[in-house]
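@channel sequence for tomorrow's demo:
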Amino acid sequence: MKIDDFRPEKGYGSTRVVGVMTALNKVLPLGAVAIALTLAPAAWAARFTDTIVVIDESGSMSGEHDWIRGMINDLDVALQAAGVTNNQYGLVGYGGLSDNLLGYSYNVGSGSSLFGSASDFASATNQLTASGGFEDGYQALNHALNEYTFREGAAVNLILVTDEDRDIHPDFNHLTYQTILDEFQEENNALLNAVLSYNFADGSGNQALGVDHQGNAYRADGTGGFIKTAGGVAVSEANPRDNSTNKTDYVDLAWATNGAAWDLNLLRAGGDTATSFTNAFVDVKVKEITTHPGGPTAVPEPGTVLGLVGMGAFGVASALKRKHKREIASPSD
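structure tokens (generated this afternoon):
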């Protein structure tokens, strides 16, 4: 049976596979078919992504403003190679002076469009400033999730880049960890990656570039590459004098959305370590986007579909074998 015979229908966080159900029901008990669908992983092969970078515009962030320009280009190239095309990118700044204190959307595409291509995004980063000192990241994330219109079926991703924990603006003290998490889940199960001034380690205590929601740690290999190891943990604030709530503000939030958290200071280390950081970051982002955990019109991952096909084929073979045995055991037929 061709893969095309599987037609994904609209759902949220799950998939209904049609077109082969009649065939499966003929050879498998109903319960077995239900088990097959229940065991199918709720992962998706996204066709495209809507990704927004939410970046701190305080006085110490100019280097990261340069980094996101090249990183988004690298990410888009890798996504295109993985078959994820027609991607669009947005840019939100916050923590600057005056009008840029709160989350602010920069025009990225043509005219007044908030989304644009990777090259449009690179041009838009030239508008960023580095002058402020009060950063309410929750307000900026809230702004991004509510200001932008995301395409149906898009893998929605937010990338937060900041060297400070949350400073709570008095007009937005109603925003909490739970309210922000709820907003992520309401937007196609959006994912957050947070690049922070925070230390991470793998299961052996080695310093890690970052840790994903499954506990995978990513370590620099000394030559610009990276090593993936198990047992990743969040260790401590990298700058405890100025930061005390990065873990509860942002690390836990990123992991709760099935995203990852990263050590900004290893990016700032430069050289091979910074190259390792970018390579690991892009690699993780591609995997997250191509196996997005939600989205109403996304298509099932090939592995999910093939798993169902394999189970169906096994059921057909078993049913024919049982039928053959019954014929041998019934000479009167």
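heads up for whoever presents: The first helix runs from residue 21 to 27.
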